[in-house]
């Protein structure tokens, strides 16, 4: 105990000799003497080694030392605050807070919301479905049976095999689930994220976003499809945009087509973006294949329909003249700040 008393005496002399020397020194003093691992705590921990008959007297000495250190700290702190007020460096807590910076929606969300708003005006509702899907809803129901060569165009990420579960390659799986409900007519758009085993580059990524549409009713024709897409493109890009359809192939539609618009960057004159053709492909479309209708329990002799699908990134790149697909997913604040104020 005599050794502890000598230590306390030395610490008191050190505290008494300590001079006020700024906020940093004050914090150092607090940590050294009053912190959770400071000298006061350490001395109190020594109580277990003091003989029982001396604990009361030693406890009184410790409490007096603790009070001495705390008083020195509070005195120093008060003097420091007084000095700050006199010098004008003290913080005025009555001042209004700094304004929070205005955020913005992601460009993908902006374009998705624009697309949804346009098709809502045509009577389309929004349908969503799972991103982890079974083989039937992602491939087989869409006239893509096992070993079909068109599956190679949608190489994807499998999570389980036999049975096959995978990350969906398109939002067509949502269309299948809507058709299986049997509530006709159907007029839906299906936005969402999809995945494909692609090499990441300025023009491709292993995940991206789609909006697909489906309309099934009696007497639906290709003319209905064309007029729907004409309206959509002109609402999104303006009335001066030129549009063309090219024959194409998709297993789930027949006949099928790709739809191009005149390049927004060169206005149809030819540039690197449009590969000097003056045209940019924005979506694929066609009449729903009768086999797809039958796979989903819909009478193909009574009902017809059309479907279309587009990549939201492709639309956003054209709308905002962005030349690198990777910018959408890199979370670069310098890129995202350009859309502040957009809703």
Automatic annotation (TrEMBL):
GO molecular function, one term: ATP binding
Keywords: Aminoacyl-tRNA synthetase, ATP-binding, Cytoplasm, Ligase, Magnesium, Metal-binding, Nucleotide-binding, Protein biosynthesis
Localisation per UniProt entry: Cytoplasm
Catalytic activity: tRNA(Phe) + L-phenylalanine + ATP = L-phenylalanyl-tRNA(Phe) + AMP + diphosphate + H(+)
EC id: 6.1.1.20
GO BP annotations listed: phenylalanyl-tRNA aminoacylation
This protein's record includes keyword Cell inner membrane: no
Pfam families xref list: Phe_tRNA-synt_N, tRNA-synt_2d
Keyword ATP-binding: yes
Cofactor: Mg(2+)
Gene Ontology CC annotations of this record: cytoplasm
InterPro entries, per the entry: aa-tRNA-synth_II, aa-tRNA-synth_II/BPL/LPL, Phe-tRNA-synth_IIc_asu, Phe-tRNA_ligase_II_N, Phe_tRNA_ligase_alpha1_bac, Phenylalanyl-tRNA_Synthase, tRNA-bd_arm
Major site of localization recorded for this protein: cytoplasm
Enzyme class label: ligase
Cofactor note: Binds 2 magnesium ions per tetramer.
Ranges where the Aminoacyl-transfer RNA synthetases class-II family profile domain occurs: 118-318
Quaternary structure (record): Tetramer of two alpha and two beta subunits.
HAMAP family: Phe_tRNA_synth_alpha1
Family: Belongs to the class-II aminoacyl-tRNA synthetase family. Phe-tRNA synthetase alpha subunit type 1 subfamily.
Stated name of the protein: Phenylalanine--tRNA ligase alpha subunit
Native organism: Flavihumibacter petaseus NBRC 106054
Gene: pheS
